[in-house]
């Protein structure tokens, strides 16, 4: 231990100054290193004087947040530790340390911080394991030495009875004896092996076919370094040119302190390896099934939460009756269905009704929002990926096609799939086979497909934005979802359904939908359709006073129903022009953005207030030139 000079001694005494552990004293409130012992100076690469003149944050560049969290935790709890801080060594390199700190009594606030070198701790751990491994080999070494002494005395009975292969080599690697078990496993007679180079005969090549040099062989290392070598994961070669996996122990033989050679005991572990491979395969399959079930369960819980307010398709209009007849016709088949209609008309509800009426009802309905998938994650989302397939692929992932196996796959907003990715989807739909990203294994799936879009796919095909072959593959059985303005007689029924749900959520039993309310709701054109109606009902329920609903709803034109006088100047009492419609839409969107604080997505966002999907609202904002607020 280095002597501490009088100039270097500190007020904390010899227990601090001469401690073999690196120690610092921080004053966190003024960002100062109050004191450092000699061990800390050696570990950090600075003199004690330099450390005392250094701010704590200067020792931890770019780590001020982590430093503040650590010091605050120590001050709050009295003691704390962390691996998050990586101080800069005096030579510029980064150190891996453990910080353990406690508070010191008195004022100002000070922390006593002890630094432990994690790399040195790891080296000690490795050395300890190596020592334990060596000790574990001593019984085997002693057993082999006894066997060798018995051989020298002429007692060959043990060798002949042993089920393990045993042979000996001298210091030049020449075979001195081979027991019967080794003869059986290797296919050679003892007379053919004794006196020959054993490595060149049975250990010359790795399992992969590459040459195995003598100087790399642990068997020969045993009588060069005098240590016992236990090896698993190599092969021995038979006389017929085939190989088999072995585990073996090479034990050095000494006489008078001189290494004479080694005794090798080996086992054929083919059956064990096969069993391990089967177990690994079974575990991988179980893991895959477990992951799939977990994802299915999480997905279904999410779907139940998001769809629990739907009790079925509501309505008595001719449009709804025609729709229900179509569902009855197609549900009993596996035909692909294309559901078209405006945003908010319940296309997903139609897909769910088809699934629930089909033979696949006991398997999941898996929904994919094609508009929400980033281009570079399309294949992974649809088909899954193997671990390590790309940066960030930390584990195998089951894709939506595989999750829907045996059930129904619902492709919502299918018109949003980029053109260059549509061919990959078409191939899977035609062949019912796919490969995960980064995996060569082909997987077969049995999936019933339902697609939905609010776009005119025929027009998209004409403009070259949608593949014609994919369109025909999807449009086997088209189903149109009628907008609310074409089935106004259903509006009161749907509104009553949403009001009951809102009353349960708000714990309001006094909410009533009057006949006047129903007539007013039926007069409105509902550009946002059912989704807009649901939001209007919920807002009215929240604003209700003494059970009377308060609707903030403009009156619609052209419904054919009695309407009150328009609340606008007389010169506008005519159908709106396109410019006026755009102005009205712009005004509504800007008002919603103002109420939501500029938020488009999420609860209380502008999209929810308007009863639109966030992607639809974003599109309309772009067309109208409305930027984010």
TrEMBL record:
Keywords, alphabetical: Activator, ATP-binding, Coiled coil, DNA-binding, Nucleotide-binding, Transcription, Transcription regulation, Two-component regulatory system
Record flagged with keyword Repressor: no
Domain of life: Bacteria
Biased composition (Basic and acidic residues): 568-583
One Pfam family recorded for the sequence: PAS_9
Domain Sigma-54 factor interaction: 313-542
GO MF terms held by the record: ATP binding; DNA binding
Domain PAS: 151-198
InterPro entries: AAA+_ATPase, AAA_lid_NorR, P-loop_NTPase, PAC, PAS, PAS-assoc_C, PAS-like_dom_sf, PAS_4
CDD domains named among the record's database cross-references: AAA (cd00009), PAS (cd00130)
Chain residue ranges for the region called Disordered: 553-583
Domain PAC residues, every copy: 229-281
Coiled coil location: 272-310
GO biological process terms held by the UniProt record: phosphorelay signal transduction system; regulation of DNA-templated transcription
TM ranges: none
Name this polypeptide is given: PAS domain S-box-containing protein
């Amino acid at each position: 231990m280095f002597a501490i000079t009088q100039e270097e001694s500190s007020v904390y005494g010899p227990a601090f100054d001469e401690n073999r552990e690196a120690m610092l004293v921080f004053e966190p409130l003024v960002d100062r290193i109050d004191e450092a012992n000699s061990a800390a100076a050696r570990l950090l690469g600075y003199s004690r004087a330099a450390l005392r003149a250094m701010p704590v944050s200067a020792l931890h560049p770019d780590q001020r947040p982590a430093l503040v969290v650590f010091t605050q935790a120590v001050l709050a709890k009295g003691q704390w530790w962390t691996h998050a801080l990586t101080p800069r060594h005096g030579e510029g390199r980064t150190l891996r340390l453990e910080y353990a700190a406690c508070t010191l009594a008195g004022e100002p606030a000070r922390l006593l911080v002890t630094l432990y070198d994690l790399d040195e701790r790891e080296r000690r751990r490795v050395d300890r394991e190596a020592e334990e491994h060596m000790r574990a080999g001593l019984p085997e070494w002693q057993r082999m030495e006894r066997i060798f002494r018995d051989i020298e005395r002429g007692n060959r009975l043990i060798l002949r009875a042993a089920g393990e292969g045993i042979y000996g080599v001298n210091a030049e690697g020449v075979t001195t004896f081979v027991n019967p078990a080794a003869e059986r496993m290797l296919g050679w007679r003892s007379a053919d092996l004794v006196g020959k180079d054993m490595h060149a005969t049975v250990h010359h090549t790795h399992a992969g076919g590459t040459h195995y040099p003598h100087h790399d062989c642990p068997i020969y290392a045993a009588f060069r370094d005098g240590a016992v070598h236990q090896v698993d994961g190599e092969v021995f070669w038979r006389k017929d040119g085939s190989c088999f996996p072995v585990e073996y122990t090479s034990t050095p033989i000494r006489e008078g302190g001189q290494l004479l050679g080694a005794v090798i005991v080996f086992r054929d572990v083919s059956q064990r390896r096969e069993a391990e491979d089967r177990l690994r395969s079974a575990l991988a399959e179980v893991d895959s099934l477990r992951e799939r079930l977990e994802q299915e369960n999480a997905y279904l819980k999410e779907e139940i939460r998001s769809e629990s307010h739907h009790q079925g398709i509501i309505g008595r209009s001719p449009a709804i009756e025609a729709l229900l007849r179509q569902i009855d016709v197609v549900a009993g088949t596996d035909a692909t269905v294309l559901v078209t209609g405006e945003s908010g008309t319940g296309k997903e509800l139609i897909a769910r009704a088809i699934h629930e009426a089909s033979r696949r009802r006991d398997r999941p309905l898996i929904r994919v929002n094609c508009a929400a998938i980033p281009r570079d994650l399309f294949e992974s989302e649809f088909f899954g990926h193997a671990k390590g397939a790309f940066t960030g692929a930390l584990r195998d992932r089951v894709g939506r096609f595989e999750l829907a196996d045996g059930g129904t796959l619902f492709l919502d907003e299918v018109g949003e799939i980029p053109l260059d990715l549509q061919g990959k989807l078409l191939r899977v739909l035609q062949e019912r086979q796919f490969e995960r990203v980064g995996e060569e294994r082909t997987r077969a799936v049995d999936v019933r497909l339902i697609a939905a879009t609010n776009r005119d796919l025929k027009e998209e095909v004409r403009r070259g934005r949608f593949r014609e072959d994919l369109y025909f593959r999807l449009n086997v059985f088209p189903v149109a979802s009628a907008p609310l303005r074409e089935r106004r007689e259903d509006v009161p029924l749907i509104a009553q359904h949403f009001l009951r749900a809102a009353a349960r959520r708000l714990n309001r039993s006094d909410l009533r939908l009057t006949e006047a309310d129903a007539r007013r709701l039926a007069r409105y054109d509902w550009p946002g359709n059912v989704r807009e109606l649901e939001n209007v009902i919920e807002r009215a329920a929240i604003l209700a006073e003494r059970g009377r609903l308060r609707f903030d709803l403009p009156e619609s034109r052209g419904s054919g129903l009695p309407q009150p006088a328009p609340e606008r100047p007389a010169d506008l009492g005519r159908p709106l022009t396109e410019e006026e419609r755009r102005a009205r839409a712009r005004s509504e969107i800007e008002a919603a953005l103002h109420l939501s604080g500029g938020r488009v997505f999420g609860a209380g966002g502008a999209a929810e207030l308007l009863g639109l999907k966030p992607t639809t609202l974003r599109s309309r904002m772009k067309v109208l030139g409305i930027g984010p607020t």
